[in-house]
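Lab notes, practical 5.
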Amino acid sequence: MLAGPTAEQIAVSEANVAQMKAAAELAQAALEKTQLKVPFGGTVGSVYAAWARCSRQVRRCGVGRPERLRVETTDLSEVDVARVAVGQPASVTFDGLPGKTFQAA
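Output from the prediction step:
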């Protein structure tokens, strides 16, 4: 006749299960620290990261809603728009940064 596990074997197995649950909770907590969350839906446009103490840390992250992006030109005619190509230089200003002009390509 086959004997079942001993009380000691059951206790060891239960301790192993508890240890694995604790390890899973630690792993979940570590994973949550790697996720960036914002209070709205959007698209990540830029990530600025740096190395610190042998780990990579995100310093800044740009998130926006492309469907709400509006580009307005002040000196581009309908005739010239056909000649616009990816990679051409452009000067960009933002209402939220008065007096600042940025060069883009």
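Observations recorded by the TA: The CA atoms of residues 23 and 93 lie 50 Å apart. The first strand starts at residue 43 and ends at 52.
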